[in-house]
Amino acid sequence: MRTRFSVLAIAAAIAFTPVEAFSAPQDDLATLMDEIWVAALRESPIFATTVGVRDYDDQVGDISLAAEDRRAVEAQAFLDRLHSIPEAELPLASLTDYGIVERLLSESIEANGFPQRSMLFTTYSGWHQNFAGLASSLPFQTPADFESYLTRLRQYPTINDEAIAISTQAVEGGYTLPCAVLDGYETSISGVIGDDVMQSRFYEPFTRPRPAAVSEVQFARFASEARSIITDVLAPEYRHHLDWYTTTYHPACRQEIGISSQPGGAEYYAFQIRRMTTTDLTAQQIHQIGLDEAARIRTEMEAVATEAGFESREAFIEHLRTDPQYFAETPEELMAATALQAKQIDGLMPTMFATLPRLPYGIRAIPDEIAEGTTTAYYSSGSPETGIAGTYYVNTSLLDQRPLWEIPALSAHEGVPGHHNQIALQQELDLHPIRRNLAFFTAFTEGWGLYAERLGIEMGLYDTPAKNMGRLSYEMWRAARLVVDTGIHAMGWSKERAVAFMRDNTALSDANIDAEVNRYISWPGQALAYKLGELRIRALRARAEAALGERFDVRLFHDAVLGQGSVPLDVLEQQIDVWIAERQAAATN
Q1: pLDDT tens for residues 327-336?
Q2: How many helices and strands in the chain, by DSSP H and E?
Q3: Is the pTM of this model over 0.90?
Q4: What span, in angstroms and rounded, lies between the C-alpha atoms of 184 and 369?
Q5: C-alpha to C-alpha distance for 126 and 189, rounded to whole angstroms
Q6: CA nearest neighbour of 87 among 19, 25, 172, 176
Q7: How many CB atoms lie under 10 A from the CB of residue 216?
Q8: Is the peptide bond before 263 cis (omega within 30 degrees of 0)?
């Protein structure tokens, strides 16, 4: 069997290691983490393939609520074992592992207790879109890779039936998305497989060059099987999904847009705040932070407008939103401008970082069937184990809503020094696989992405008032999220009020604003992570600069922030305090 490493081998090594070898608390913790990792791979077979574990290549996983309950029971057993380990006796290097594993297990158990667990899709993602993107996350180098892919495609009816059953249960319980966010959502289902199956994303592996390890005869056979599966298995399932959505789900959509209007919704939103921000801030505190940040950024925007020769911030923004010079005429032009900007940033990275990732990234257009209703860009991580690069996805729809002056900040966030830089580095760290591959805390990851946009100032990316206003608009966008998300889900805001706040404060286009507000409504709490994470990273940098003075090295500071992977914000603060102390001690020796 071709495998980078085997779960079965890991499990066997755990089973046959002498008990006395694990007498120390840190050894007990290491054993427990290994078992949690094995369980995670078993329960997420597609994820296992992406990290080079090939034991489950014929499986797609069980998404049923019964399986979720079983996983929660297993997580509780793991958590009980974790709590039996004397935390006070652990060495410093193991304390972070302990805290992260405790948080991951506790949050998964708590999340499973909310009835909102039956809400399986948002305007941003869903099971039908996730499965349609399968080809972009799996390896296609050997005949076994293609066989595995086709085997998984054949299992989609099981996933679709289970997801529809769960979502029907959600409908019956009143746990549906608001009507206000569902305009055009059916296209994300109907557009996956069009009249030509060879144009669907499912057929993508057969539009690429044939791998050397696959013969022409094999490749032709695999392609033929794929066409048959797409036509005879997948297309009927997507039609079934669309029919269910239009006849059962959409008629039951909610009129109220805030999650707090649902039974248990206020408690669920409080949980989401804790989970997404890794803080104990209340909705009201976050709302006020957003208002304060918006006021500060607005003052900076007014200064940039004056520099550009406009009498007001509003006049400059109107110019930026409407002048044709700021918009690409074709998708190819937009992609070319994005590629050029990304490559220019690549050349500046060594000035800000001492350590850079080996894994590269590329750019691709967001799939047509979701482009008009989704965000302006997003990042999809790659896999060093399976030879897949990271991907910066760019929205090439509605070109009159995609201004070129947004590209520097957008590219810094999604590519480098933002998401790709941070995530690719994490995948290479000498940490337990849980830390490398499962521990992604939104406040850290998205906070870093927004901090990376600000690094563009030091990298010279915003060399015109338009580009600088684009940066400030993006920062205002994230500040506005604190106001709008909490306004919607904790304070009874309408969608119209949320849209008006975004339009009055940011320079975003109307299409982006509508898509973003729909995202906040359907995905409560996630949008709060960006600004809160960025503020914490900026505060820690200011602390380090003040403490170290001339000895402060921004390249080493960034390595310290990223050097332990994604962590909760309180853990990051502890790590940077230790780094500052070590730098001070080194200077006195």
Answers
A1: 999 999 999 9
A2: 26, 3
A3: yes
A4: 10
A5: 10
A6: 25
A7: 8
A8: no
